[in-house]
Amino acid sequence: PATARRQRLAVLGATGSIGASTLDVVARHPEQFEVFALCAGSQVDALFELCLRFRPAYAALATEAHAALLRDKLQAHGLATKVLSGNAGVEEIAAHPQVDAVMAAIVGAAGLGPCLAAARTGKRLLLANKEAIVVGGRFFMDAVAAGGATLLPIDSEHSAIFQSLPDDPATWDRRVEKIILTASGGPFRGRDPASLKAVTPEEACAHPNWSMGRKISVDSATMMNKALEVIEARHLFGLPSARIEVVIHPQSIVHSLVQYRDGSLVAQLGNPDMRVPIAYGLAWPERIESGTKRLDFSSVAAMTFEPPSAQRYPGLRLAWDALEGPDGTTAVLNAANEVAVQAFLDRRIRFDEIHVVNLRTLEAVLPDAPDSLAALLELDSRARAEAEHAATRLSA
Length: 396
Ligand code: NAD
Ligand code: MG
Known about the structure:
Layout: E1 7-12, H1 17-27, E2 33-39, H2 44-54, E3 58-61, H3 64-76, E4 82-85, H4 86-94, E5 101-104, H5 112-120, E6 124-127, H6 130-147, E7 150-153, H7 156-164, H8 172-175, E8 176-183, H9 201-205, H10 214-222, H11 224-237, E9 244-248, E10 254-260, E11 265-269, H12 275-283, H13 318-324, H14 329-345, H15 353-364, H16 373-395
Parallel strand pairs: 1-2, 1-5, 2-3, 3-4, 5-6, 6-7, 8-9
Antiparallel strand pairs: 8-10, 10-11
Helix pairs in contact: 1-12, 2-3, 4-5, 5-6, 6-11, 6-14, 10-14, 11-13, 14-15, 14-16, 15-16
The chain binds nicotinamide-adenine-dinucleotide and magnesium ion (MG).
C-alpha cells in the first residue's frame, strides 16, 4: 500500500547480474524501496559506483583488504556508508534489525551463511542463490520455518511455478500431479556430444537467451543448472523428486509449468528477463512494473519442446540420485560442481570432465547428516578437497 513505509532492502551480490537487475527494478520504485545495504565479493570499484548512486547505510566486501579500499574511496567522496567485511559482515547485514528484505544473489555456497542469517531473523528472503538451498537442504528450510522468514523464489523457473500454484501451500500435494521445469538446453543443445570435449569457456558462457554470471552460464551448458533447480524445487515446493520433471524449451518463453491432478497445465510466460521474477519477489503479493519488454506474439515464431538427452547432459540425473542419497549428498554435489566449473573456466579440465569430477566426488565423499551450518561447511570443504584432487588427476 502507498501509505506503508518503504521496504528496506539488502542486496547481496549487488555487482553481479542478478544484483544489477534488482537495482534496475528498485530504481523504478523509489517510493517503495530503500537500498539499505549493498554487498559484493571483491569488486571494489563497481561497489563504490553503486554506493555513490544508491547511498546505502551499509556496504560489505568479502575481505577486509577490499573493504579498506572501499572505505577510503567512500571517505574521499564524503559518503557515510559503513563498510563491513567477510562472512561475518555480510551476515550482520542480512540479519540487521532495520532490514526488511534480503536479495540473496551471491553465487555459490558462500551465500549459505548470509541466507541462514536472513532466515533466522525472519526476513523476506528473495532467493536467487540456488546453491544455498542445494547445500542447506532440509536444514535450511527448517531455519526458514523456525525464523518465520518469507522465502520467495527468484530463479525464473521457480518463480513461474510459484506463480502457477494455488495460494495455499497446504493444497499443493493434493492438487498437483507434477512440476515441470523448462530448460533452454544451453549453447550446445544442437551439438554432437562427441564435439563437447573441445569447447572453450567462452563458448560455454555464450548463452543463447540469458546474459548471466560465468558460473551459472557453464551450469546451463552442462544442464547442472537444471539439476540444481530440481533440488531447489524439491525443497521449495515439498513435492517428492519423482514428481519433478524437466523439458527442454529452447525459446525460454514458457518459464515452467504445474501439471494438476486433472491433467491441466498452468504455466507462466514472458520474454526471458530476470527483472520479471525479481519484481514479483519484491512486490509479492502485489505486482509492480519490472521494465521488461512485453511479449510480442507476432515475433514469436514458434515454441518447441523436447526431452533432454541423457547422453548430451549426463549430469542432469545426478539431481534425482543425490536427492535419494543421505542428507548432505546434494551439498557434496554442489561443492564438486563449483570446483569442477572453476577448473574448467581456468582451463585445467575439459568441459566433459566436469561431470567426471562430480561423479568421482559423489563416490568418494560420504555425508554424515549435517545438522548445523558448521557441519555443512565442513562437508562442503571435504567435498571441495576431493573434487580438487579429482580435477588435478584429470589435468595431469
Ligand atoms: P554473478 O557472478 O554475476 O554475481 C555474483 C555476485 O556475488 C557478485 O556481486 C560477486 O561480487 C558476489 N560474490 C561472489 N562471491 C562472494 C562472496 N564470497 N561474498 C560476497 N559476495 C560474493 O552471478 P549471477 O549470475 O548474478 O548469479 C547469482 C546467483 O543467482 C547464482 O546463485 C545464480 O545461480 C543465481 N541465478 C542467476 C540468474 C541470472 O540470470 N544471472 C538466474 C537465476 C539464478
Ligand atoms: Mg533458472
